[in-house]
Write a structure and sequence with these properties.
It is built from 19 helices and no strands.
């Protein structure tokens, strides 16, 4: 990667959400904001290659994007009011890096209850998380074309319904937060197991942004158990990041990770949040249970010391709240550690997840443990075809090639 390409990549990671947030506030239109931001980056590809990377890439992108938005409004003769408003704002100085609240406003705008839940999640992954449509489609196990249409419809609904660009009032916050948490969870997951072609297997900028925004939401709702649970889940997962990919770029499973490389401070903070929620005595929600499962894993000094019976019991609670096939798949993985691979495989084979790579990877491992080598090889092959993460593909390929 050339120095210019590297600078562009860094700028996109750092500036996309900020840029979209600034443009949305100025022009009141998500479509204009996204298009102008994308055009600014496209212009940077040409200009920075010819003129060099500017001293302040964020300010350069902001100025360019504002000009692109104004040019578009000038071309739309029916939008004279927005044209005049844009021109009056053009000379304002935007303090780069001083707009954390802008991104929070954008997050809540995209997660407005007037939108269907799936539309909220998809739109926010695009506008706040900066994920591409293929990455979002992968997160939803959906077709790329359908996901693009879903995002477009969501933006049109915000425009037509005149949904305000703001953090909701204190009374409205609790009913708005579930969609926000779902989005932040998926942004974090895309960073922790990146599916985009040509991206790093772990995208720290996405995990860091998801954690940062979750901390901000926790500041707004300090007594919300699910906000605390999601933050704990993220911290306990992020704590393992340094041990998750080998120097050769291959995924390292939880069983094989060097636990001495885990971040002790993040684990301590995550455990503290889990204990606080247990002490509260309230019935836990989905994120709190997932955080508790991760607390069990990160409490074991060695993989062999993991309390699998407690993990299965927690998954039993989670299945009652979220009876999805993916939760059932993860429960089966834990069941294999107690009742053996044959019992787990029977549970896995009942799941309708043929398009999900982890389903086939799980079957491949269980079949391998049962000595059913040809079936295991076939399942590994299907998992490799469906997986989008380069580190995971390297791991699955090695495991398949090791089969006798």
């Amino acid at each position: 990667m050339s120095p210019v390409e590297e600078a562009l990549s860094r700028a996109h990671r750092a500036e996309w959400a900020r840029l979209v947030a600034v443009l949305t506030r100025r022009f009141g239109d998500l479509d204009i904001a996204e298009e102008a931001a994308a055009e600014a980056f496209a212009t940077a590809v040409e200009r920075w290659a010819a003129d060099g990377v500017p001293p302040n890439p964020g300010a350069w992108l902001t100025t360019t994007a504002v000009r692109k938005a104004i040019d578009r409004l000038r071309r739309e003769s029916k939008r004279e009011d927005k044209h005049r408003e844009a021109l009056s704002m053009h000379d304002e100085q935007e303090p780069v890096g001083a707009i954390d609240d802008e991104r929070l406003r954008l997050l809540f705008t995209c997660c407005h209850p007037a939108l269907a839940m799936e539309a909220r999640v998809a739109l926010t992954l695009r506008m706040v998380g900066g994920l591409t449509v293929p990455e979002i489609a992968s997160a939803f196990l959906a077709r790329e074309s359908a996901m693009g249409k879903r995002i477009t419809r969501a933006k049109n609904k915000i425009k037509a319904a005149r949904i305000p660009y703001r953090v909701p009032s204190a009374e409205d916050l609790p009913r708005r937060v579930s969609g926000v948490l779902a989005v932040l969870f998926l942004v974090f997951n895309e960073g922790y197991l990146a599916t985009g072609p040509g991206t790093d297997p772990v995208r720290q900028e996405l995990t860091a942004e998801a954690i940062r925004l979750t901390r901000l939401v926790r500041g707004l709702l300090p007594d919300d158990g699910e906000v605390a649970g999601l933050l704990a889940l993220m911290l306990l997962t992020e704590a393992r990041r340094a041990a998750r990919v080998s120097d050769s770029g291959e995924l390292i499973t939880l069983h094989e990770q060097d636990r001495g490389a885990w971040d002790a401070d993040l684990i301590a903070e995550g455990h503290r949040l889990v204990r606080e929620r247990l002490a509260a005595g309230a019935a836990p929600g989905r994120y709190q249970i997932l955080a508790a499962i991760n607390a069990v894993h990160t409490s074991a000094r060695d993989a062999r010391d993991t309390d699998w019976s407690q993990v299965v019991a927690l998954y039993d609670q989670l299945v009652r709240l979220d009876p999805s096939p993916i939760v059932a798949l993860n429960r089966a993985i834990a069941v294999a550690e107690i009742d053996g691979p044959e019992v787990a495989l029977a549970a896995v084979d009942r799941l309708a997840l043929s398009g999900y790579h982890a389903f086939h990877a799980t079957r491949a491992d269980l079949l391998r443990r049962l000595g059913r080598v040809p079936e295991s090889r076939s399942a590994y092959g299907r998992a490799i075809e469906l997986a989008g993460n380069t580190a995971e593909i390297a791991y699955l390929t090695r495991r398949r090639d090791q089969l006798e």
